[in-house]
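Here is this case:
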Amino acid sequence: MTDALSTFDTWQMVALAAALGWASGVRLYAVLFIVGGLGYLGVVNLPHGLALLEHPWVLAASGFMFCVEFFADKIPGVDTVWDFVHTFIRIPAGAALAVGTVLWLAFAHPIAALVVLLCLVAFTIWLIPKIWRFIRKLFGRLTGGASGAPSR
């Protein structure tokens, strides 16, 4: 079978990293199991940072947890506890999946990785003041305008 990831360009790998990160926030164990299974079956050759997902023990563990997650969602109370616990698991796991793909990008195309990093940093610098103003404004409205900051 063809090596689909070797034909991906830089932006497709960035998109893959974003998609894996997002999907793991929805159904982490399904993503781990499906991506690892595709690599194990030779449908795609995973980047080095994700190759661990192909290991039979990882496949068995992620498949088992995928089944547990499926049934946990059907039981009231268990569903709430499961979602609470996994709120703290899904975010770092999604980040790890994305990093496994973004690190490949950094080694394979360092200039492109640097450009992506600089764009993300610039976007963050642009966005943080806007978020801060929004939070101050929201807090001011919730407390009746007594936010302590002069309004603009």
